[in-house]
Amino acid sequence: MRVDYPRELDDFESLLAERDLILVAHRDGEAIGYISVVLSTSKSIGIISDIAVLRRFRRQGVGSAMILAVQATLSEKGIHQVQLEMQSKNHPAIELANKLGFEFSGFSDRYYYNQDIALFFRRRL
Question: pLDDT tens-digit profile of 12-71?
């Protein structure tokens, strides 16, 4: 499965307004990835809803580093759980979640615009 990133500029600007936290990974002055987080309505869970790394930088630890940075930031803010959401066909993301100690916590049918299933993984901080 292929997801187009980066998003269109208009989409990215609206993303900035809708998220509680966005971190951008840089290498040699170039933005190579980003991760975005929304807080649950109770402010007790940080939900990672977007994580993207430029193709040529994948499988080099960038995604892991961004997730670890989010976890540290959330922990500093007193938030003790983090959730990842991903499409059911996103096998690299599923592998990453498992590698970082996330546990499967549920799914939602037809969650995405393309009617794909969303998988949810959680981890206590």
Answer: 667 777 888 989 899 999 889 999 999 988 889 999 988 989 989 999 999 999 999 999
The H-or-E segment that residue 26 falls in is strand 21-27
Q: Where are the domains of the chain?
A: 9-124
* Sign, CA torsion 4/64/20/113: positive
Confidence band for 100, pLDDT divided at 50, 70 and 90: very high
**What three-state secondary structure class fits 18?**
helix
CATH class as words, domain 9-124: alpha beta
The pTM of the full predicted model, rounded to 2 decimals, is 0.84
Task: Quickly tell me which residue has 């500093």 as its tokens.
Answer: 76
Residue (of 66, 112, 68) closest to 86 by Cα position: 112
Contact 31, 24 (CB under 8 A): yes
